[in-house]
Design brief:
By secondary structure, the protein is α/β, with parallel strands linked by helices. It has 15 helices and 25 strands. The strands form seven sheets. The protein has a six-stranded mixed beta sheet with strand order 7-8-10-11-13-12, with helices on one face. Strands 3-2-1-14-15 form a five-stranded mixed beta sheet, with helices on one face. The protein has a five-stranded mixed beta sheet with strand order 20-17-24-19-25, sandwiched between helices. Keywords: Hydrolase, Nucleotide-binding.
Length: about 475
């Protein structure tokens, strides 16, 4: 552990002047979310900050893969892995975007070409360690210090089991791993968020360094809690992390510097824009080559008809075998063209959102509809961020299979009966966000795994059903 005298201050020093003996350099990034516009700077940072150091560890702490970028979507994340390989990573762990943004079959092959290990101990495959991950990695420095590296990800118990994964409690897993560790120094790659990290720092005596992620927090100059060092570098490559540690001959940390370096402090190069544009262009070309359907006509998505929204809602109802769909027009970001490719569909339905099948009573449905329109009127022009939404504004409430006028509901053309049961389909954003508390407290909800909205639409149209 870092000695108590070191906990309350940061030792800043000039790298050119420091005695390099017993020095460990750690470089890390997290939550890139396929923001490749910052990748050239990150790559140079990792390379330049490694020069002159015998012992360098490089980590990615998860959510590198985000299907919002065309190259990530077209390659199902394999394009990200190629870029991660160029960073010469020591190891990585996964975030929820890898674990839940990809179907199980996709995640099983995501890291096939990786030249670094994935460290992950709290997700299992039918009780066994996934073939693409290890529970920990042990390394030895040039000066003889052993380091145990652990990796954990946010558990999401409502989602991982239905995606085909077993999820374990990260705190219990970490407690066992640390109890079994005989290493001189321990590092946790934590895609668990700052609350977990700070509690872990208070709880475990032999946890030396936590590299954090998931909640997009930044520790600009690190944080020290009860002898544990914490570092975190925000999101999107807006920051890159650097930790420099010096040890005595008994492997006690006697000097430390923790920095989350702002990307604006890093120099750009003339070729950066071309690199960034090429990554996007490659993704668009791959997606454009995959034709989804030739429709009888295109569908606009504007008030009052919202043709595109109703078209998509009808497909979702048919594919999920639910009579009625409730969604918001902002889910459909653009008009649907007559000749539809995967590139178009990625722009039109960019969200990492699945549908939820809800079973409610008639009286609950009446309360839900009143809430949806009341809150929806406020949300319609609001910019929505998070919960998988990748659009612009919420938009208007769209109904398929039911109508709501003058506080009266017709479900499949018939009045709603209070004590009868009804099934509705809504985006999972309504379940995870705080917009609609009455809906969240009503009936029973089943998330429809594993496909995203656009995957459902693509599969349906590729079957030749066009109207």
């Amino acid at each position: 552990m870092i000695e108590k005298a070191t906990q309350d201050r940061l030792f800043c020093y000039n790298e050119a002047m420091i005695n390099q003996e017993n020095v460990l350099k750690i470089l890390h990034l997290n939550d890139l979310h396929s923001h490749f516009e910052n990748y050239p700077k990150i790559k140079r940072f990792f390379k330049e900050k490694s020069v002159g150091f015998s012992d360098v560890l490089r980590f990615d702490i998860g959510d590198n893969v985000d299907r919002s970028h065309p190259l990530t979507e077209a390659t199902l994340g394999k394009g990200n892995i190629a870029l991660m390989n160029d960073l010469q990573l020591t190891a990585a762990t996964i975030g929820n975007n890898e674990g839940l943004g990809l179907q199980k079959s996709m995640l099983d092959v995501l890291y096939a070409s990786a030249n670094f290990p994935i460290i992950l101990a709290n997700i299992k495959d039918k009780g066994l360690q996934p073939s693409w991950a290890v529970e920990k990695k042990t390394v030895m420095t040039s000066f003889g210090m052993t380091i145990d590296i652990f990796g954990l990800t946010a558990p999401y118990p409502l989602a991982y089991p239905d995606m085909g994964w077993d999820i374990l409690d990260p705190q219990a897993v970490l407690a066992k791993q640390l109890a079994d560790s005989e290493a001189d120094f321990t590092i946790l790659l934590s895609h668990l968020g700052w609350r977990f990290d700070e509690l872990a720092a208070q709880t475990f005596d032999n946890l030396d360094l936590i590299l954090g992620a998931h909640t997009h927090h930044v520790y600009e100059f690190g944080k020290y809690i009860d002898g544990t060092m914490l570092a975190a570098a925000g999101r999107y490559g807006e920051y890159v992390g650097e930790v420099t540690l010096r040890f005595d001959d008994q492997f006690q940390c006697i000097q430390s510097e923790i920095i989350a370096e702002d990307k604006h402090h890093l120099a750009s190069k003339a070729e950066d824009k071309a690199v960034i544009a090429e990554l996007a262009s490659r993704g668009h070309d791959l997606l454009k080559a995959d034709q989804v359907a030739c429709l009888p006509n295109g569908y606009a998505n504007h008030y009052p008809t919202y043709q595109a929204s109703h078209f998509v809602a009808a497909i979702l109802a048919a594919e999920n075998q639910v009579p009625a769909v409730i969604m918001n027009s902002g889910m459909i970001v653009d008009a649907i063209p007559q000749l539809l490719t995967l590139d178009d569909l990625h722009d039109i339905l960019p969200h990492s959102i699945r549908m939820v099948k809800w079973t409610v009573s008639g009286s609950e449905l009446k309360a839900i509809m009143a809430e949806l329109y009341d809150v929806g009127n406020y949300l319609k022009t609001q910019k929505i961020v998070g919960m998988g939404f990748r659009g612009k504004v919420f938009g208007d409430i769209i109904l398929s299979g039911m109508t709501y006028e003058n506080d009266q509901i017709l479900y499949q053309g018939s009045p709603v009966i209070d004590d009868a049961d009804y099934r509705i389909l809504v985006p999972d954003q309504y379940l995870f966000a705080a917009y609609f508390p009455i809906l969240k407290a009503s009936g029973t909800a089943e998330i429809q795994f594993p496909r995203f909205m656009r995957e459902i639409v693509a599969d349906y149209l590729k079957q030749g059903v066009s109207d």
